[in-house]
Design the sequence.
């Protein structure tokens, strides 16, 4: 600033903020003043320089990036992971207004439960003519195999979301009910963490209600549904390719529940069981994030490959509590909203406390007349659609866009297939665009969970923020961003931790059995990561030699060839494709166990992958490559540190470790077989020591230069050298012995027995007996351990 | 007519299969006034690990099984005795096609026999314009729904050729209709699509057909395998009628019912992972003999 003109008083970030005519704004009151609730926020924003604001907001972005928060987007035949689009300015709502919203939504949740109980029970609503039969009988979400099934514990619904909008009169409307498997609660949590980072000097003192209590209460409620302390609670996910898989893993980790795929589960004796490395274990509470059709190929969609045959039978037998019961998707039917207002007085003994969008089912003559009378106000859609009203895939038609005769014909011919809804407009809330606040349309997603004390409402949620200034609800199809929602109390709010309340303290959280699929992925993650490290070490040694001896190469470089062949490496590539493949495979395995894998290790793995891919086209053979590979090696060591120093020694960690030891043992055996072969070129022994990362140790243990005997001794037989074959086998033995049923009072499993034999072999042999043939044979026996492990634990 | 039924379904697997859950819908239905089951039993060889029964939404008896792992062959045998009472309806009390929507609107029932279940597309039966057009043309002169059922059934029977090798159990109806050939399942599902296309609720019936025709009558198509036909709702007064498009006749005493559904998928005789297991071969045989 020195020497420059004194800066003019900075303009407020609200300068130029103009609410749209006739559209309520969250921040600005109708008289043009800033609402009291927002004044502190605006003052905080105004007090920050542009640079400081940018720095603060980037903390939120960095957090989301570091935690790997993404969602998967499908389009054009492929799917891509997208970073979570955070709109940094939270939506502020007063506690008192929130109480009214909460009360209304609890009532609506009770109403939906009552409708569900009727549709899957006596069906009196249809029989008495209050719901049209066609709406139910023709509805693909009304699942006939579930009719007559009474849910265990008496409730069909346990976790719901509602999409709300604020209409022109300032009152809230329900835009949609989410009852199938509502998504986004985990994103709401991440939004909160990220937004709190961005406002770290501001948020703590703003009396914003915390979200953790909601999750803790729901977790405790689910544990209350469990039969005993030994039973299991799990989250069922469609798998890593699902658009919100990140969230499934996130919530599972946050709440300490197992994350399962349909294939992990089976049904035996009408009980739902999970395949674990300890055998089959019962699951008695399942939070499903899978659409019902896919849940059971036997009784629902037979084409589903991600379901569990017999799931419906388990529900029929009442052996499992499901969140929410299969069939709950029928409540999302858009045309149902035409009837809920009339049903409320009877089913919940009061009119709806919060209206839903005015809706007409066009199978009804008076509804058709209403649509014809004012097409300007109407949006038409498939009566049975369960999509959100602003889902881009939704086939919406603005009735006003249709010529009168076309509208008439559509109504006359297919009235029962159509639903008309009032074309609602939304309120606006501030979003930050290039340093200035601008009004953007928003909808609110609010979550309810059933607890022992009734419905709990998450104090917050997330807001969708539109991209432009078109406030018609269907303009939200264009996509946009998500913002945190702060429910602000006039007085300090209690701090909340996830620690259980004293009353439920006696219920110990059982780690549960490790699902066999998770164990398999951890085992392979260990293998791929170690294999990648093996490739890097070998290539680094190769390029170092290349840098020293020049392109001429010589016999020593040719001596690498058998190892390259063995490992499938093309030496012409400085960063071999093989390495990239192994990293991709490691990420693939890790992505299926994200609930068990530390977010730091996950970020580190992605970091290496990105670095290696960026290096691949640029790095030149020789010195350049050697240095690049050294960098990768340090990064790989970082992952090992994160995993092995920080991961709790659950049985899952053992499978990861066994994978790593197994792969390293095979790699070392092959390395020695090739480089310690009497026919190997000169210098091969030094190379073996280098690739085996034992240069210093060799110098210390042996005062003379390397001979076959010293190298075999150091890299095959030395129990104290962590790179030696013997060390891998000893550690394998230790880990395998601690696997379930490996050593039952001395009775060894086939796997434990074979590891013991390998141990005995290495412990009793000498360098001369470990010929090249013997080493290859050893490698083969080590490779076969994988099959024994798979047969015992992973299938 | 009293029938002795025998059904045998056999699968051979090239490789031993893993344990699997199966549902069987192969038992004759007890239908008061129409069909009385005097005796029925199902034998499974080798025996399953678990076995239980339940009744599905549409009232069909389902046998639920868990089979042991490592099977190379499995056999399901059903034996039973069923008294089938002939439906002698000759009088046409069915509604006119124009009247049918009103009759439907008056029905506020979602029980298994409600016509509302059978009006829309279902998993295996899409509503297709060419089939609806065919139905509209065939039924142009029909004064009542029952006449329309018969007209469409006859037209399809004339249009399509019975060919046991032309289609598979999973062949889409569009393909069977375009190829103008198929088995009872194709004939029935196409007819159902046509009826629904003109607003007539229509269900799929799975069952058996007597093997040896009554003296002097020709042997019917489909008698040596499980059979399927169509059930159509003809209005509030006349209710349901059943028609066999494969043989172009209304259903009377020659047909024995297992159950109803929206299409084949609701009443498939065998449902379960077995159908997904590698290479396999299967066979099934049926014997339905009249006892008197």
Sequence:
């Amino acid at each position: 600033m020195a020497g420059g003109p004194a800066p003019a008083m900075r303009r407020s970030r609200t300068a130029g903020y103009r609410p749209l005519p006739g559209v309520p704004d969250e921040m600005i009151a109708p008289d043009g003043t800033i609402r009291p609730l927002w004044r502190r926020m605006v003052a905080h924003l105004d007090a920050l320089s542009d640079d400081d604001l940018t720095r603060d907001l980037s903390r939120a972005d960095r957090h989301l990036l570091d935690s790997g928060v993404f969602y998967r987007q499908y389009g054009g035949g492929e799917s891509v992971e997208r970073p979570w689009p955070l709109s940094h300015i939270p939506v502020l709502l007063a506690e008192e207004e929130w109480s009214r919203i909460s009360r209304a939504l609890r009532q609506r949740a009770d109403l939906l439960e009552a409708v569900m109980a009727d549709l899957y029970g006596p069906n009196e609503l249809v029989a008495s003519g209050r719901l049209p039969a066609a709406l139910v009988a023709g509805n693909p979400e009304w699942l006939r195999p579930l009719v007559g099934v009474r849910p265990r514990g008496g409730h069909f619904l346990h976790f719901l979301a509602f999409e709300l909008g604020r209409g022109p009169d300032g009152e809230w409307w329900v835009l949609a009910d989410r009852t199938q498997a509502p998504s986004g609660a985990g994103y709401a949590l991440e939004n909160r963490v990220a937004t709190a980072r961005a406002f770290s000097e501001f948020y703590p003192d703003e009396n914003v209600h915390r979200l953790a209590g909601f999750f803790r209460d729901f977790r405790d409620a689910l544990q209350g549904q469990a039969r005993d302390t030994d039973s299991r609670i799990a989250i069922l996910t469609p798998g890593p390719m699902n658009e919100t898989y990140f969230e499934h893993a996130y919530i599972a980790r946050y709440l300490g529940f197992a994350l399962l795929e349909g294939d992990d589960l089976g049904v035996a004796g009408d009980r739902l069981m999970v395949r674990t490395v300890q055998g089959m274990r019962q699951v008695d509470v399942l939070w499903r994030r899978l659409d019902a059709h896919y849940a059971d190929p036997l009784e629902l969609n037979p084409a589903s490959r991600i379901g569990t045959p017999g799931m419906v039978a388990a529900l029929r037998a009442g052996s499992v509590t499901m969140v929410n019961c299969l069939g709950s998707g029928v409540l999302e039917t858009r045309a149902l909203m035409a009837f809920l207002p009339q049903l409320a007085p009877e089913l919940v003994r009061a009119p709806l406390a919060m209206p839903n969008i005015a809706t007409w089912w066009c199978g009804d003559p008076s509804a058709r007349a209403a649509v014809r009378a004012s097409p300007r106000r109407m949006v038409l859609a498939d009566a049975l659609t369960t999509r959100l009203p602003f889902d881009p895939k939704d086939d919406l038609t603005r009735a006003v866009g249709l010529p009168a005769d076309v509208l008439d014909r559509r109504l006359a011919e297919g009235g029962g297939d159509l639903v008309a809804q009032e074309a609602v407009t939304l309120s606006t809330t501030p979003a930050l665009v290039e340093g200035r606040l601008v009004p953007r349309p928003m909808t609110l997603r609010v979550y309810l969970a059933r607890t022992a004390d009734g419905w709990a409402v998450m104090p917050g949620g997330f807001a969708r923020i539109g991209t432009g200034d078109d406030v018609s609800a269907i303009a939200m199809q264009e996509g946009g961003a998500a913002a945190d929602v702060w429910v602000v109390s006039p007085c300090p709010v209690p701090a909340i931790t996830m620690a259980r309340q004293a009353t439920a303290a006696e219920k110990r959280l059982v780690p549960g059995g490790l699902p066999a699929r998770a164990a398999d992925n951890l085992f392979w993650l260990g293998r791929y990561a170690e294999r990648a490290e093996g490739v890097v070490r070998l290539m680094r040694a190769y390029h170092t030699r290349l840098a020293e001896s020049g392109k001429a190469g010589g016999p020593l470089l040719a001596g690498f060839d058998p190892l390259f062949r063995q490992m499938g490496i093309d030496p012409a590539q400085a960063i071999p494709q093989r390495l990239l493949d192994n990293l991709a495979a490691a990420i693939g395995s890790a992505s299926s166990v994200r609930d068990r894998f530390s977010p730091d290790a996950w970020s580190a793995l992605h970091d290496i992958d990105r670095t290696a891919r960026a290096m691949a086209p640029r790095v030149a053979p020789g010195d350049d490559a050697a240095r690049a590979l050294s960098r990768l090696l340090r990064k790989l060591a970082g992952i090992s540190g994160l995993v092995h120093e920080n991961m709790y020694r659950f049985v899952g960690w053992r499978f990861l470790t066994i994978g790593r030891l197994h792969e390293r043992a095979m790699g070392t055996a092959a390395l020695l077989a090739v480089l310690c072969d009497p026919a190997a070129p000169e210098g091969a022994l030094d190379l073996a020591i280098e690739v085996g990362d034992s240069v210093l140790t060799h110098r210390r243990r042996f005062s003379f230069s390397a001979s076959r005997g010293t190298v075999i001794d150091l890299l095959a037989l030395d129990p104290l050298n962590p790179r030696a074959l013997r060390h891998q086998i000893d550690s394998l033995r230790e880990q395998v012995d601690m696997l379930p049923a490996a050593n039952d009072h001395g009775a060894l499993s086939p796997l434990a027995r074979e590891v013991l034999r390998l141990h005995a072999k290495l412990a009793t042999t000498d360098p001369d007996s470990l010929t090249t043939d013997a080493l290859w044979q050893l490698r083969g026996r080590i490779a076969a351990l994988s099959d024994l492990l798979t047969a015992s634990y992973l299938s | 007519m009293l029938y002795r039924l025998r059904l045998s379904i056999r699968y051979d697997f090239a490789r031993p299969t893993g344990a699997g859950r199966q549902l069987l819908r192969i038992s004759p239905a007890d239908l008061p006034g129409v069909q009385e089951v005097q005796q029925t039993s199902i034998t499974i060889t080798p025996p399953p690990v678990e076995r239980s029964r339940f009744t599905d939404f549409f009232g069909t008896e389902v046998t639920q099984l868990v089979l042991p792992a490592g099977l190379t062959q499995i056999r399901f045998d059903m034996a039973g005795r069923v008294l089938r009472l002939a439906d002698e309806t000759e009088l046409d009390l069915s509604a006119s096609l124009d009247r049918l929507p009103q009759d439907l609107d008056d029905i506020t029932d979602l029980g298994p026999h409600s016509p509302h279940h059978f009006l829309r597309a279902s998993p295996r039966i899409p509503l297709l314009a060419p089939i609806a057009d065919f139905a509209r043309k065939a039924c142009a002169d029909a004064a009542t729904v029952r006449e329309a059922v018969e007209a469409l059934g006859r037209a399809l029977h004339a249009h399509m050729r019975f060919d046991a090798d032309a289609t598979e159990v999973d062949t889409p109806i569009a393909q069977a209709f375009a190829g103008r050939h198929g088995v009872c399942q194709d004939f029935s599902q196409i007819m159902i699509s046509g009826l629904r296309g003109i607003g007539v609720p229509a269900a799929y019936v799975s069952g058996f057909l007597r093997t040896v025709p009554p003296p002097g009558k020709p042997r019917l198509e489909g008698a040596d395998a499980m059979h399927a036909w169509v059930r159509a709702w003809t209005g509030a007064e006349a209710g349901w009628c059943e028609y066999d498009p494969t043989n172009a006749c209304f259903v009377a005493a020659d047909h024995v019912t297992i159950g109803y559904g929206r299409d084949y998928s609701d009443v498939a005789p065998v449902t379960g992972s077995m159908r997904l297991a590698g290479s396999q071969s299967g066979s099934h045989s049926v014997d339905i003999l009249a006892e008197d």
About this structure: Chain A touches chain B at residues 123, 126-129, 133-134, 136-138, 144-145, 147-148, 267-270, 297-299, 301-302, 309-310, 313, 316 (CB under 8 Å).
